[in-house]
Amino acid sequence: MSQSLPKLLLVDDEERFRTTMSKRLNEKGYEVADVGSGMEALDYIRSHPVDVVILDIKMPGLSGVETLAEIQKLGLGIEVLLLTGHATVPTAIEGMRLGAHDYLMKPCEFDHLVQKIDEAAKIRRERQERLRKAEERALLDKMEKRWTR
After folding, report:
1. Residue range 8-30: average pLDDT?
2. The model's pTM
3. What is the largest CA-CA distance in the chain?
């Protein structure tokens, strides 16, 4: 079974960074959407499937960590990679405690980012497969109980 590339959401208030990074990720074959704020990210996630969010920590309005917390509340199992400048490493660590997959320093090496995206997507796929199997077992158990009555 071939694995399709994950659907990505890039969230950063720096438009030039978003444009450049989205273009490079598209060239690698990823399906990438990009938005400029945490609120836009939450709106997007509510109406579009997303596997991995690449999230800047330092943004006006909702910070990356606040956005991460809101993404986690949605319960969709989306993996989040945090992007941080040197001054916000303690905040990135706090984000890891809140459930982020990992954090990367800005500017990040592109190949390293791609590696982290693939790792996060693999974890998401494996978790989704375990959930699918558990739901399948529960359904079979329910059907078996009906047949044995």
Report:
1. 96
2. 0.87
3. 64
